[in-house]
Amino acid sequence: MKSSLLALILGSSLLAPFAEATEYNHIQTDASTVGFSYKQMGVAIEGQLKKFDAQFSFDSSQLAAAKAIFEMDLVSLDAGSEEANDELAKKDWFHTLAFPKGKFVSTAFRALGNNRYEVSGAMTIKGKTKDISAVFTMTPQHNTAVFDGTFTLNRADFAIGEGGWADVGVIANDVRIQFHLLADAGK
Fold it and tell me: E-strand spans in the chain?
């Protein structure tokens, strides 16, 4: 038993330099989700972003070269009803007529340990740009990996909910964004 354990340890340490790191560079948008949640008068509301495009390159062994660019189709926001979706498109909210897209561009990635990472970058919504950071886990699965994470967006930073809707006592300022991205090494 001891000799087979020793052989396993030695064998894996001798092969470690030859293990190939994988660069995940293609987000499967049809198998990925981006959701949001917030509180309106104390009641939790959930929704999702139905369409987005991504340029992505992530290799955990080369974080300095990692990049992520997400372009969000804000017209595709779904807050659970047609009435709510129509309201989100209005000038006081996302003003999708003038600003149909939002964008996140990464500036840095860092390892936190145990397949956990942090990405920092610039988020632009409704013509306003703010720095944000998100913590995520990466779970490799052969030639694919799952990236799951969350971050909090302050809606007032982006003028989301202007006029009478600016009162954070009615609709909370904090909007929690959750993402579940399936990436592969396909391109």
Answer: 26-27, 33-40, 43-49, 52-57, 67-73, 77-78, 101-113, 116-125, 128-141, 144-154, 174-184
- Where in the sequence is the domain holding 160, given as residue range(s)? 22-184
Q: Does 8 fall in a domain? A: no
- Percent of the chain surpassing pLDDT 90: 80
- Looking at residue 34, which CATH number applies to its domain? 2.40.128.110
pLDDT tens for each residue of 98-118: 999 999 999 999 999 999 999
Is residue 4 situated within a structural domain? no
Reference 157, options 143, 139, 174; nearest CA is 174
Asked if the structure places residue 130 within a domain, the reply is: yes
Buried b (16+ CB within 10 A) or exposed e, 45-59: bebebeebebebbbb
- H-helix or E-strand spanning residue 25: none
Count how many domains the chain has.
1
In sequence order, the 6+-apart residues with CB closer than 8 A to the CB of 85 are 77, 78, 79
* 161 φ/ψ sector (left φ>0, alpha ψ -120 to 50, else beta): left
Model-level pTM? Answer: 0.84
